[in-house]
Write a structure and sequence with these properties.
With 78 residues, this protein is an all-alpha fold. It has 5 helices and no strands. Helix content is 74%, strand content 0%.
């Protein structure tokens, strides 16, 4: 029986790079200014707003993903 992760389509390499750039930019932007706009994050990531919203349809979703990304980076560093 296939697991839930087996059924999810694999992302293209450029999509993975975009997501990583968005998470890094989100961490940087929100660290400087908790009220940073999603346009600021997209600009920092070098992607358009449409790309950002394709991967993170809401501000809350992006903030949750950035938080998980920061925790993962901290855990790796420790």
């Amino acid at each position: 029986m296939a697991s839930a992760t087996d059924r999810q389509p694999r992302r293209r390499a450029d999509a993975e790079r975009s997501i990583a750039a968005i998470l890094d930019a989100g961490l940087a932007c929100f660290s400087r200014n908790a009220d940073a706009s999603l346009t600021d994050v997209a600009r920092g990531a070098g992607v358009g707003r449409v790309t950002l919203y394709r991967h993170f349809p809401s501000r809350e979703g992006l903030i949750d993903a950035v938080r998980a990304h920061a925790i993962s980076r901290a855990a790796t560093a420790l």
